[in-house]
Input
Amino acid sequence: MLETPPLALYVHFPWCVRKCPYCDFNSHALHGELEERRYVEALQRDLEAQAPEASGREVSSIFLGGGTPSLFSPHAVACVLESARRHLTLAVDLEVTLEANPGTIERGRFTEYRAAGVNRVSLGAQSFDDARLAALGRIHCAEETRRAAAELHAAGLDNFNIDLMYGLPGQDVGAALHDVEEALALGPSHLSHYQLTIEAGTVFAGRPPPLPSDETTDEMLDACRGPLQRVGFEQYEISAYAVAGRRCRHNRNYWLFGDYLGIGAGAHGKLSLPLAGEVVRTTQVREPRRYISSAGRATFTRTAVPAGELPFEFMLNALRLVDGFDVPTFTARTGLTWEAVAGTMADLVEEGLIVASGACYRASPRGLRFLNDVLLRFVTEIPKRAGQSELSTALHPAPELSNRGLFTGVGGGNVK
Ligand SMILES: C[S@@+](CC[C@H](N)C(=O)[O-])C[C@H]1O[C@@H](n2cnc3c(N)ncnc32)[C@H](O)[C@@H]1O
Ligand code: SF4
Output
């Protein structure tokens, strides 16, 4: 039976100083003045319009993502969080994450964000090699990332993530390892380690840079686990490592197929409606200007996820977690019986791609390595077993935050 899972709030900020050539998120280079006040007002209208969907439910985390939310002033962030407090019921131990680009951090800024209610930050470092940062079109150098991390500690925001990418143009295993060591030296509590993927529609897709071979990127991944484990960082998701007690609550909710409201230009939401027996997805208008002029006037579309797609959507998220999931979570979050996937799961267990232990299922190391192939089985086999035609892998519009490197453009939502 479909149950009501935990609820989160995602808020999208769609502008950046410059568009990075690898990025396919709904982010736009800022030309002219930031329309901060008008955008915040649109977010407030959006939140007010969507809040009834969350009536009687508690919000356990808020993620201010982008784009570059740190282009917005602490006052703007405070206004958004104040609206959330007014229209929603927030958990007492609410996690509030702000994504920050090291190139936008002025002195003292993090202290003000913290005063506004932010208690976790995600810093987009990407690399500590200045030549590589320039090749990635980043607006900052490694020293600015170090300075931003020092500002975080000074502000008492010790719970912060560093985003790193590996498999970068011209990078070898030693250089990838060096980036991880540099990141760890800054004292984060969490590290997101993404393999650079070439996404359709980006500058890199038109002019692909020379990338390391698959063997080299596999070696990078293996080599980087060593220093992370040595300082107590446990891998809990395909791209995420954290010290004890610092796993990202917001992202874990996505991966366990929890619910979230999505506000802001192009933001996605997901809601479980047990009475209707439906899981619905919401999508806001993508273009920032249209969003500003129309948000709050029912501009988001709402579509029910067909039952035949739920197993794939669930697995797309839950199998990313190193510990996987258990059967009761599958049935509660999809409203389906285990029989819907039992045959496919049994085959995957026999092939050594999934490990079963009692009612728990997780991807094996080989299954994690070839997760795309594992997931494809839920696209091709489940509908066939249910007597339907195959699902298309392009059922959903490209979300602004796809599951990096995995079925880009499908399912997911606002995962970072
Ligand atoms: C919305 S961005 C982060 C915040 C901020 N805009 C920044 O870039 O500093 C989320 C993260 O996704 C990762 N990312 C973006 N595009 C990627 C790609 N094509 N391949 C792998 N990782 C990517 C980067 O590590 C990035 O920091
Ligand atoms: S990677 Fe971050 S800074 Fe670069 S364009 Fe994308 S959202 Fe903006």
